TrEMBL record:
Highest taxon above the source species: Eukaryota
Record has Zinc as a keyword: yes
Cited Gene3D superfamilies: Glucose Permease (Domain IIA) (2.70.70.10)
Coiled-coil stretches: none
Descriptive protein name: Leukocyte cell-derived chemotaxin-2
UniProt signal peptide: 1-22
Family: Belongs to the LECT2/MIM-1 family.
Database matches in PROSITE patterns: PROKAR_LIPOPROTEIN (PS51257)
Organism listed in the record: Labeo rohita
Keywords: Disulfide bond, Metal-binding, Signal, Zinc
InterPro entries: Dup_hybrid_motif (IPR011055), LECT2 (IPR008663)
Amino acid sequence: MRLYILFGFLLLAVICSCGVDASQVKFGPLCSGNPSNHIRECDKKGCGAYGAPRNNGKGKHEGLDIVCADGATVFAPFDVKLNGKAVPYRVNNAINDGVNLSGGGLCFKLFYVKPIKYSGTLKKGQKIGTLLPMQKVYPGITSHVHVQMCDRSDPTNGDWTHECLDIVCADGVTVLTPFDVMLNQKAAPYINQPKKEPINNGTTLSGEGLSFKLFYVKLDRYSGTTLKKG
Ligand SMILES: *[C@@H]1O[C@H](CO)[C@@H](O)[C@H](O)[C@H]1NC(C)=O
Ligand SMILES: *[C@@H]1O[C@H](CO)[C@@H](O)[C@H](O)[C@H]1NC(C)=O
């Protein structure tokens, strides 16, 4: 992968290869307000990663939680067929809804979503539905869509997230351009996480035929400028 080549040149904090290679980014955004399908980090109710402990360690998380605010719009991440209702709980509550979908050779379910319909098809980027009021049921949780493969395998075998590299860099150190770049727009790694605000800065860059993001970096300007290498 081309990004790998970059690795040797960079003295930078974090690179996201968002949009580097269309074939790598198979899954479009799932939720409005979360364009990079950011996964739910650990909160007091648990962690969003596949396999994370559940029920005091007696169970494990059989899906992947993608951050999504209550009431946000949930989109088809690729062209999908809707295969009917799918619900997470036996005992009903305010967020007990979802849909079974197939597309791209995958069968998966989305929970906590009120779909606009349970059958038919949708094109990538079209609205599937709306995130249900998760804060009412789990106050303080990071609201999210739960993605679960029908065979309960690891959804990250697909491309729900973009690939990133972490490059070691001390706090306060100057971040240099790895080659001539254009600053495209501001990019923030976190959504709705007030505690992370001090590091919630970054930018989208392009240059050398690549488009990528740097996170945890504060810039004087976020767009409309080109910078020379170094
Ligand atoms: C989802 O729908 C597909 C297609 O109808 C079906 O084969 C599959 O069993 C369903 N999966 C689950 C877990 O409900
Ligand atoms: C960016 O960094 C500054 C601190 O330098 C902080 O106040 C701000 O909340 C950060 N995040 C955003 C999105 O601007």
